[in-house]
């Protein structure tokens, strides 16, 4: 049985609520018109959550239109529908008796898009939802970025200081030029007889200059905002969602980025109206990007096969911590002094066990890099540790070197080895071991030729594909 949560997406037009599995599947879905009175919205959300609730529901995620202080579960402001100052989360928690998480609605949509939608496999993403207004959300290193309280208000990037007034109190925010509301204004001001953006595209394709100008008025400020996002946070991709996300991406295609430094990759969101409820449900299980799963990268290879250098380079690129067998064992060797090979092996086994007990105790959203010569213990032992630690995905980087190279490297480092590590007598043994050693193959394996330059771009891309794919 998968874990289940209730996701609620409160929009200006509809309230959507759904039972969502920890894999992002919708099991049951409800939808109602949104009342205009905030207290009635609260009542309807409680009624919908009651209808969906069952004993195995882990909690309720709420996507809120407006700025949200996630840590304090406080709604700071809203637009047309303003739910601030109602103790929304506390009142729903009291009514249903389940844990409640609140988050900005666009952040919830981004959680879903990173897990199973248009940004799957990416860890640094910005998203804009283009509808009545423009919502925004940012993910950094796989998690929603909140800044001090409510970061990611990308609809309020100013693109013209003397532009139209914005509900935020300033003028010329991108929302005032490039939202659906603004598009209707551009159409009316041009005197164009078009009821939908599709009709504007048709007129423009037929050579209508007014229609072309309307599309430019709508999309050019958005292009400026996207370039600003690229300049300030350099995401891997920017997703365009909401009812007009695909149309905005189409209009932008005629307006390439102007600055050679800042050319963001722009993708349409994939989950349409369901993104909000799916992300709201997933928010109960962890954070964005499928991070509710625990992952490990095994950096494996015989002694002197270049594991530590690779593990360090991967850690620098991803921010994931390294647990290395020698990192745990060596302090013991320093304190105990010279030991024989049997005792060295016992220390190795204990250090190995310590690594997996750290990982087992870590939260579900963790990713670790484990640097060890795994072949010194049986595969069945490793499989048991992986199962006990509830690790969802394993990526193994297999450091391959010819025996002679490993032997030479080991011999050249003998003077730096701590007493207790095998000495010169081990070199011949290592040469033979390196030639016959194999990866553990408890998950996906990438073989790294350690006689060549490391291609870290390829390594990082492969690992994120293993962890991002389902
Ligand atoms: Zn604004």
Automatic annotation (TrEMBL):
Q: Which InterPro entries match?
A: ATPase_NBD, P-loop_NTPase, ROK, ROK_cs
Q: Which GO terms describe its molecular function?
A: kinase activity
Keyword list (alphabetical) reads:
Kinase, Transferase
Report the sequence similarity comment from the record: Belongs to the ROK (NagC/XylR) family.
* UniProt name for this protein: Glucokinase
